[in-house]
Amino acid sequence: MKKILLLAFLFSIPAFAAADEARILAVHGKVEVKVSKDRDWAPAAENMEVLQGGEVRTGGDGRAVLLLPNKTRLWLKEGSNIELEQRQSMASRIALLFGKLKARVPHLRRRERFEVRTQTAVCAVRGTEFVVDANEEGAMKIEVLYGQVNTTFTVPPEKGASYMEIAQGRTLEVKEKGKPGTVALMTKEQETKAIENWNPGLAPEQRRAEMKAKEQDRREIRQFAAVTGATENRISNMVAQVKESDLEAGRTLRDVHGNLVRVDQRMMRPESNSMQIVNLVKRPVYNHVNRRFAGSYNTSNRLDSLSAKITFSDNLPQNLSDWPGYFESHDNLKPQSAVIVAANQTDSNNIFAIASVATYDAATDELDDQKRIYYTPASGYTFTDMGNLISKADTTGLDWAKDYPTTGAITDARLSIDSGDSGGPLYQYEAIPFCKLGDCTGNNKLWFAQENFVIDNNGKIKNVGDFTNTSSDPFSILKNSAAETIWYLRKDSAGLPDYSASGDFGPNKNIDLVIIPDIGVAAVQRMLPALDKISN
Amino acid sequence: MKKFTNTVMAAAVAGLFLQAPVCAGIDFEGKAMQLAGEVLANPAAFFYDFQQDLEATHPLPPGKWMGFQMGLFPSLLPMGYGNLSGKVRIHPEGRWKPGLPQLDFIGGYWDMVWAKLAANQADDVNEASFHGYYAGAIMSSSVSPRARVFWGYKHSMLKASLNLKKAQDILGQQVSRFDSGFKDDFFIAGLEHPYGMNKWWSIQLNYGVAEKIMSSKVSWYGRHFELGLNIYPEGVLVIHPVWNWHWNF
CB A169 to CB B146 under 8 A? Predict the structure, then answer.
């Protein structure tokens, strides 16, 4: 018998030896402790041990933190009283006599148990963080932050389950001992109060310092995202504004002679009160098909351009879509000048250009070009000179001619539109007489001749029927249409333009422009909402 | 001279005439033909979208250790996918070690009822087999007592084969047999938040590694039913409303 008792004692030593005591980690305010069942109450101090059967109670301003042997932390709020009912290596139980405690139970060993008992129920937990609030009458509230709490009612309620599993994020409330418990979702306020720092000695605003720091981090992240988003929007708007005032369009097609052509268009805002449209026509090889105005113009790496710049009396809005409304509401906005230059720039040191320069005439309230055209001399007109012409309306180095004061314009096969049937080809030959330097006497006449075509992307001349008898939508039609206009300056030959090449102003002296509607369509599309608003 | 200027400007803006754009009504027949074409181009992907509707990639709610799920719409009806999925919790959050996430194993199988009926009863069908399965793991971790994030992996497979006795003309093609399949590994990421007792709102993204396809799910997950919107940007029917039944315990 003695051997058995001895063996039993020896086997129990490890259990007793492994069960360290519970320890008070921190106290604040009035906190008292009964170290064991048979001891008296004494003021609690840090690192004080509490044995099985011992109690800890906090006064009206007291808070305490305990560390149990199984590494469970217990936070006690003001006006709380707990008893360490059981403290063994594989089983621990805390009795919450009254008050509020928060327990963070770490990982327990496989058969290890940890329970919190109140007047009403026993809560068994594993790897859990939860808050229990109980009073002496048996009312109880459990808030499970993480993990799960298994609750067994000591006094089974008349109705409802006597055993409940409370998952995290939920609360169990028992209003009265013997009454059934109600499980509900934890509210944000409950969650905040449960998560805040329960350590003793902290002022109320310090308890949520960590949470506030996290909130602040989240706010900063949101602000950063908002600022980044706003910056991106500003950049996009800037780019959009730049693009709106710098529209681009381009197309590759064939001209009426069959040459491959690349047309690039830009709409630009050189100054805030001006607008410029540039139409560049590039051909790797230019073979001219003689029609009405014959000549020898074949060349390679041909470059023709049309530039139109108009300057206003006041600054224009940045956004293209604002222009219609702006023009409508600003009656005193007047065009100050307009410069239109068509040029053959194949040789940048000997450019052939024909230009019109108009300035505002207050008397007539319109642009007046004085019925003049300007044209380049035989040679020596450079790219720089042309730049000055476009940007400053500087006609230095140009010759000029004035509109011939008769009605002697010669037209040939003028705009052959057959309105009745499927329509004829859309082309026009025209020549307009001018007087050099305004002197219409003697041999001073020259002819400004044009050949105008409406072509498709293959260079084929279009018919009227292509526009009127079609099921395609207008934008598709426009995408497959272009205008080609070929300009010449011809000498006079017995009162008519000299149709032969010898009557020309020199070799390569023509300007062959292909103009696409793309940029115009893009601009109108941008302005359409405003135009629509105005018309309404 | 004005004529000169006018000619230039007219030439410059020759195309600036406006006409009202032609308004077209919705062409349902055309759209249906287009969808049929997309299905024929990749039938497996089309059927797989419906398999994703029944896949239970949502983690088990806290406190539950096992669950079953059945896809009702559009899986069971009208597609006829007889299906059952299961989930089992291997590790509850924080049980083995504080901070270790919850780990659930998921898996399911489906077989098309209509295919079996067609094979048994239709005269012109020799053999029809449409079935698939998926298996994977989902881990979930609490970011607050109520909100969780989850992530995981699943492997999905689908096999579709149809053998007709006589070739049928489908969109100009003579079709007597097709064998198709789909197989991919997916990474999943999502978050859930409760909006009531036993009710969660969740959103998740799936990314198929081999096929490089993305899909997303938004769902309202209740005690027994789940209502969702699945979005397959590269699918034939981009948005699938979904209704599933589940039982967790």
Answer: yes
Which residues, 6+ apart, have CB-to-CB distance to A19 below 8 Å?
A69, A87, A88, A89
Cβ–Cβ contact B170 with A under 8 A: no
| Confidence at A443, pLDDT banded by 50, 70, 90 | confident
Name residues whose C-beta falls within 8 Å of residue A505's C-beta, 6 or more positions apart in sequence. A352, A375, A378, A446, A488, A489, A490, A491
B14:A454 CB<8 A: yes
Q: State whether residue B6 sits within 8 Å of chain A by CB.
A: no
Q: How far is CA B91 from CA A160, A298, A526, B96, in A?
A: 30, 85, 60, 8
H/E run at residue A345 = none
Task: Flag whether residue B194 sits within 8 Å of chain A, measured between CB atoms.
Answer: yes
A239 — pLDDT class (breaks 50, 70, 90): low
Alpha-carbon distance of A508 to A192, in angstroms, equals: 86
For chain A, say whether B99 makes contact (Cβ under 8 Å): no
Looking up tokens 């005269």, which residue turns up?
A: B123
- Whether A165 and B63 lie within 8 Å, measured CB to CB: yes
In sequence order, what DSSP letters do the residues of A104-127 get, joined into one string? EE-PPPTT-EEEEE-SSEEEEESS
Cα dihedral A208, A213, A214, A216, rounded to 10, equals: 120
Which of A268, A293, A245, A203 lies closest to A486, judged by CA?
A293
pLDDT of residue A244: 53
Are the Cβ atoms of A128 and B14 closer than 8 angstroms?
no
> What tokens were used for A376?
């380049």
Residue type, position A507, single letter:
P
Nearest chain A CA: its distance from B231 CA (Å)? 26
Cα angle B19, B25, B30; round to 5: 125
Place of tokens 């999943």: B188
Decide if the complex's ipTM is over 0.85: no
Q: Which of A373, A372, A394, A377 is nearest to A385 (CA)?
A: A394
Q: Supply the DSSP string of A250-313, one letter for each residue.
A: EEEEE-TTS-EEEEEEEEE-SSTTEEEEEEEEEEEEE----SSS-----EEEEEEEEEEEEEES
Whether B14 and chain A come into contact, CB under 8 Å, resolves to: yes
> Beta strand A63-67 with A73-76: parallel, antiparallel or unpaired?
antiparallel
Contacts of A514 in chain B (CB under 8 A): none
Say whether B103 sits in a helix, a strand or coil: strand
User: Residue B97: which of A107, A166, A373 has the nearest Cβ?
Assistant: A107
Highest mean pLDDT among A107-111, A131-135, A438-442, B31-35: A131-135
**Partner residue opposite A146 with nearest CB, options B14, B21, B142:** B142
For chains A and B, count residue pairs whose Cβ atoms are closer than 8 Å.
124
Most confident of A345-349, A428-432, B107-111, B120-124: B107-111
Helix (H, G, I), strand (E, B) or coil at A211: helix
Taking CB atoms and an 8 Å limit, are A107 and B94 in contact across chains? Answer: yes
Residues in chain B closer than 8 A to A194 (CB atoms): 145
pLDDT of residue A234: 65
pTM: 0.55
In the predicted structure, residue A7 carries a pLDDT above the cut 70: no
Q: What is the pLDDT of residues B79-130, one digit of tens each?
A: 888 999 999 999 988 877 778 899 999 999 999 888 777 777 777 777 788 8
Do residues A177 and A149 touch, judged by C-beta distance below 8 A? no
